Fold:
Amino acid sequence: MTVSRFRDGATAILAPLVAGVTYARLLHLLVGWIFAGVVLLVYPGTYHKSLGAIVLQGTATDVVLLALIALVPAARRAEGVQARLLLVPDREEDIGVEPSGNWADRRRMAGWLIGRVALGSAIGFVTVFGLTGAYGLLTGPGAARYLLSAPLVVLGYGWLVIGAGRLQLAMAERLLGPSPAERLAEAELRAERLLERNRLARELHDSIGHALTVTVLQAGAAREVGDPAFVAKALEVIEETGRRAMEDLERTLVLLRETPAGGGTAGRGTAGGGVAGQGTAGHGTATEQPGIDQLSALFDTARAAGSPVDARIDVPPGVLPGVLSRESYRIVQEGVTNALKYAPGEPVGVRIAVRDGRLELRCANRLAAPGRGGPGRVGSRKGGKGLRGIRERATLLGGEATVGAGGEGGAEWVLDVRLPLRLGS
Structure:
């Protein structure tokens, strides 16, 4: 046990001395010292000057020059890149690489440059004078007495460099780290990306979920009926539903392949039509999103699956912004899909109208009686991802959605959504 502890202690002391990160940080420190040395040779120089005058004038010159350099926005980026490479932080994002965006960034940049040069100069002078003194001792009289202490001197110098490198890294993270404005922008970007991923997940759930529901119902009905004509019709519906699902999947994949600069733009609605806008997303593939004027095909699919659909759409052309048209299509699609899944064969009523500056959507169907292929229970649809997605869509558009039993005696399942037109652009 004692030997193991000794070995572990020796490793903890000696391992940092041979680590590459130690010498990378030493190089970073010496760069600051070289800057101070070059300035000192140019002005004020060392000829016929006392040590106090050299230090005073050299320090004043360095501070002025470094403060002027800090005013250049690109200097912060250059220092950040260099610090990431040579100081080797645990997380690169802890050291910013963006140009200075305001005076607070420039003040922090000035503090970093002055602190870097000061610390680097201290290590540089210790290195030069230490080597000079060690050479004199080891080559002068009585060198043998000092030779035994050389390992301790080297160990002490090594840990001085390690400590200075860690201090330099802490300074970099403090003074070159992202500003509050940059952290806020990064948080907003992460939130935007999360919302976009959630939106794409809802798109996939709605389109693929609807296609699978229709396919399962048609396949099951074709197997039980056995009529060749009905089977042919069912296969036709399955083929058409699968084709539309593939188109929806391709549109979503195009959005996923977009670059961050263009992400979230393709497929978003135009200001004037009932169908969302279209784009190429840089891949030559249309990203048109379905709108309410394509609901008729959705209703035909439901009818082919055996559920009569009574739809009344009272929306003047050009009234709905594209994004509202697209989201309305998905909401109705989810409502119809739920009706097909939980109450197959029951009539579905859809009402869409614009009233008092709002778009009102209603999707209702009778609850399936036990034994007709549906659960016939109100609670069976609560908490599903589809209904949660409808509420999320409505909330993001500034509206509201309610779902639950309705009609006389609670014999219907009703989805009511109200969306303001003014927030849909």
The beta strands are 309-314, 348-355, 358-366, 400-406, 412-420. The two ends are 72 Å apart (CA to CA). Confidence is low (pLDDT under 50) at residues 259-287, 373-383.
